[in-house]
Amino acid sequence: MQAHEKVKLIREALGLSQEKFSERIGIKQRTLSYIESGTYNINYQFLRHLIQSYGVNIDWFFNDRGEMFEKNITRSKL
């Protein structure tokens, strides 16, 4: 699975719209749409915000090892 596909998978696992998901990361919804479609590449800053904002397991993201999230994330915390 490619990185842009994983971003969409993370967002869907959290049950968030593109608007809500992108708002927390600090990007526009349109930018997220381009990232999820593979039109835009993921940069370091986006990845850092993704990990910090949503507790994404970096080993899962890059190496498909472990769980998607480092810690238990509940929708109420989002």
Tell me the major beta sheet. Answer: none
What is the number of strand segments? 0
Total helices: the number is 5
State the end-to-end CA separation.
26 Å
Helix-strand sequence: HHHHH
Structural class: mainly alpha
Q: Which value, in Å, is the CA radius of gyration?
A: 11 Å
Relative helix content: 55-70%
In the predicted model, the low-confidence regions spanning at least 5 consecutive residues are: none
Shape: globular
Strand content: under 5%
Describe this structure in words.
The protein is an all-alpha fold. Helices cover about 60% and strands about 0% of the residues. It is built from 5 helices and no strands. It has helices at about 5-15, 20-25, 30-35, 45-55, 60-65. The longest helix is centred in the first third of the chain and has 12 residues, at about 5-15. The chain starts with a helix and ends in a 15-residue tail after the last helix. The model has no long low-confidence stretch (mean pLDDT about 90).
What's the short story on this structure?
This protein is mostly helical and 78 residues long.
Topology:
Layout: H1 3-14, H2 18-25, H3 29-37, H4 44-54, H5 58-63
Helix pairs in contact: 2-3
Structure characteristics:
single chain; 78 residues; mainly alpha; 5 helices
